[in-house]
Each structure stands twice: as C-alpha cells, then as structure tokens.
Structure prediction request, 415 residues.
Amino acid sequence: MNRIYAPLNQDLLPTLQTIEVFSSLQLPSIHIVGLPAPEVSEARERIRAAFAGSGFEFPRRRVVLNLSPASVRKRGTGTDLAMALAVLASEREGDRADTVAWGELSLEGHLRSPGQELRALYAAWSQGVERVILPSEALTPRVRSRIRALKQSGAFASRFPSLQAVASFQEAWKALQNPTHFGVKLETESPEAQGPAPSATPLLRLDPWLERVIGVAAAGDHHLLLLGSRGSGKTVALEWLSALASEPSAEVRALRLLLSELSQAARPDPTSPEPACPIRRIGAQVKASALVGSATPSGIRPGEFTLAHGGILHADEFPEWSRDSREALREPLESGRVTLTRVQGQIEFPARFQLAATGNLCPCGGWDGSRGSLEEDCRCAPAARRSYLARLSGPVLDRIDLVAHVPAPHRRGGG
Prediction:
C-alpha cells in the first residue's frame, strides 16, 4: 500500500508520521484524529477551501484523517499538504510511490513554506522514502545550499530522496502522479553561481609562548581559559584558535543543520557561506536557560551549548557570568551532552564543543597578575580581587584543560 507521510518534529531528530484516510457513506464531513494541535485541527477548513480553489471536488462522504502514531502530539501547519494529498489519493486510483509532503495550504490552494524543510528531507532519508514534495518558495539559494550539504554528509546508506518543488496543491497532485515532474536538481553549483569566495581577514601575530598554547589547544580540542588584563590580546588569541580549528565531520555537520532549524535565533545573511567551524560567542549577560535550551509541550529549542556542537563556544568575560550559567557547563564539558528532565520526560541534546573562555583578573580589568600593575593599573581592593577570582569554582576549572595567564603587553618578557 502506497502511503503519504509528513515529518514529525516532536523529537530532536525528526521521524515520519503516516497519514491514514478512512471514508464512509455518512454526512459529508472531515475529522482529524491522532492528537492534533489546534493549528492542525484547523487544517480541515484550509483543505476544503484548497480543494475548491484548485478545481477538485471534495469527497461527499465522511472523511477521517488519522495521524499515526496517534499517541504523539502533532504540531505545525506543514501537514496541510500531506493530508490534502492523502484525501485526494484515496478517491483516485493510481500507482504512486511512498511520498513525504510538507507545506501549508492557503485558501486558494497555493503553498506556503512552514519552515524546517531540511528536517522533512532528513526524516524521509532516515526512513528510506525516496520522494519529497516541498513548496517552491521554500527553496531559496541558502536552503538549496544546506540541502546539498545534508546530501553530502552521507548520514545514511540509502539513496538521498528526490525533491519536487511545487507552488500549488494542483501542482503537488501532478507531482505525486509523476515522480519526474517538478524535479529539483541538487548538483553542486559552479563557483560563479555560488558567488565569490570571502576574503580571509589577516590575523595579528602572537607571542611565541601564546602561539604554543593556542597550537596545543587547537591540536587536541582542549578547553581553554585565558586570564589577563584588559588589552592583553586574549580575543586575538582566540581568533587564531578559531582559524586553526578542524572542520567537523559530515555527520556532525548534518546534525548541526537540523539543530539550526529548531533555533529561534535570527536567520543569517542568505548570501554568507556556511562556516567550516561553527563559533558561538556568548557574553556575560547570558542566562542558564539560554545555554541549556528548553523542552516544552509546544516543542524543543536547543540552547547555545547545543548550537556550538562540533565547534567552539567562546565565553567572553567568563568570571562575569552568573553562577548558574557557569555551573551549567559541568555536564557538557564532562559528557558532551545536555540532559533536560521535565514532567513530559527526559531529552538529551548533543553538546560536544570546545570551550574557549576569556576573562580579567579583577573587576576593573587593570591587574595582570604582577606587582607593578597593582600599583599603576589596578583600582580594586584586595578583597575585591580575591572575590572576583573565587567566582570560578573548582569543579568547572577541573574540566578546563588549559588555563593560561596573559600578561599586559608592556610587561611581557622575551619568551
């Protein structure tokens, strides 16, 4: 039996839900079962209107749509297209391959992008479904580039699904009938189509001893903490660490692409290339909840720890972080994951990143650890300096591999 599927985005890694249709000779109506959220239940009106706007006659029967598995809450408007195609296919015989459909229907039958198209492709690929129908407006140049990156990751041994882009419900029905109609080619574009390569920004030279510290940290992916006075070059050193970072594996890149679609962060410039090594820069005002993420009945949101998976987490002014935010680092630094326990259950986020933290030695930032700077540059009382450094707890420091002291430039020796 050929089936219509839609992605199920309840978990970190998307799976598929099956659209089942039953009709009977009763008063014409449409019912959606299988724990639909309000926006999914409202799809019955959008489907009726889309049928009329596309020139199709809605079945004059009682139609029941079951979203399986029925025990999982279904959310989002992306299931509109799959449900409408399933109803139409149930009334018209034909030989059709299993298909994943994802798109929001307008009342006129046009298709809108519901977002998370990459997760729809991943879910189809993981289940061996060979065809995916998506709204054509969703396939922007950046989305196409990310789809190619997902395809090149080789996450699964099965063949990558073929993609069909349609603009309306009527076109989606034609695509369902013909696997080659509205097909999208995902081959690598030429350098001219991708645009010119970005020019590299030259980096300032470091002292030889600091170069060795950065080299060791980059070679072994060691967690690093640089402490020193203001203007000592800590941020420049981390720029070198970012430049020397190794590129994540294909599997990690595929996972990061999925995680980025769950994030509420602002969308990046569509003309900018995907960074080879992801870098998340976090300031001192960050809250612990933003670091670990959230898991609620309405969905899951990865935090900064998870968004830095496979890359570098740059913790700026680390001693200024709140205690809860600093202590939240214990689990990801130890195990490479973040575990959230809620009433609904437990969920684990991947969070294997390299911590690169910077900070001052005192509240005013003038002390570089030397006696001379105490007399000339630092305005803090001794108790304030001791209290400032005491913020860094022993358990967190134990999980940081390298802690380096960066003196002020005019107080450094020759080696």
Remarks:
- The radius of gyration is 27 Å.
- Confidence is low (pLDDT under 50) at residues 189-199, 266-273.
- The first strand starts at residue 4 and ends at 8.
